[in-house]
Amino acid sequence: MSNSAAADPAPDHAGQVGPIIAAHRDRPGAMLPILHAIQRHLGWVPGAAVPLIANALNCSRAEVQGVLDFYHDFRRAPPGRHVLQLCRAESCQALGGLALEAHARAVLGLDYYQTSADGALTLEPVYCLGNCACSPAVRVDDEILGRVDQERFDALIAGLRGVGATA
Ligand code: FES
């Protein structure tokens, strides 16, 4: 499994982020919009983007890296084919989220921000999916699910395995 931002597997990402930076660089407070736009486009923020953003915004690489590190929502490595997010906010915690979280980690053998060895699944925490009335809530890729107990979670993972995800 991997959760590190090791060497960029595709250095040509620099060519992809350049136009994104150019499109947002003149906005007020451009750094966050640039980082969000890169992650929307690639699914993560490659290290190659850091010096390019620093040059465009006339700031240091350390400043860009600091923002990137501060916000955990920015991925520093490519995600798996499926991203599974568990809600850790109050309502979900109060209604079984902690037990679900422990179950998920044990079943998947993953901690947060880790990706399974086959690249199929990335596990991430999230803080409220806006689905509190149906806690505990989980997001799989773009789909938000509610009232996810351990049995439903296992069925969900089995379904993902059925389309190529093995955790
Ligand atoms: S607290 Fe989990 S969806 Fe709101």
TrEMBL record:
<dbReference type="InterPro" id="IPR002023">
    <property type="entry name" value="NuoE-like"/>
</dbReference>
<keyword id="KW-0411">Iron-sulfur</keyword>
<dbReference type="InterPro" id="IPR036249">
    <property type="entry name" value="Thioredoxin-like_sf"/>
</dbReference>
<comment type="similarity">
    <text>Belongs to the complex I 24 kDa subunit family.</text>
</comment>
<feature type="binding site">
    <location>
        <position position="87"/>
    </location>
    <ligand>
        <name>[2Fe-2S] cluster</name>
    </ligand>
</feature>
<dbReference type="GO" id="GO:0051537">
    <property type="term" value="F:2 iron, 2 sulfur cluster binding"/>
</dbReference>
<dbReference type="InterPro" id="IPR041921">
    <property type="entry name" value="NuoE_N"/>
</dbReference>
<keyword id="KW-0479">Metal-binding</keyword>
<keyword id="KW-0614">Plasmid</keyword>
<keyword id="KW-0001">2Fe-2S</keyword>
<dbReference type="Pfam" id="PF01257">
    <property type="entry name" value="2Fe-2S_thioredx"/>
</dbReference>
<feature type="binding site">
    <location>
        <position position="132"/>
    </location>
    <ligand>
        <name>[2Fe-2S] cluster</name>
    </ligand>
</feature>
<dbReference type="GO" id="GO:0046872">
    <property type="term" value="F:metal ion binding"/>
</dbReference>
<dbReference type="GO" id="GO:0003954">
    <property type="term" value="F:NADH dehydrogenase activity"/>
</dbReference>
<protein>
    <recommendedName>
        <fullName>NADH-quinone oxidoreductase subunit E</fullName>
    </recommendedName>
</protein>
<feature type="binding site">
    <location>
        <position position="128"/>
    </location>
    <ligand>
        <name>[2Fe-2S] cluster</name>
    </ligand>
</feature>
<feature type="binding site">
    <location>
        <position position="92"/>
    </location>
    <ligand>
        <name>[2Fe-2S] cluster</name>
    </ligand>
</feature>
<keyword id="KW-0408">Iron</keyword>
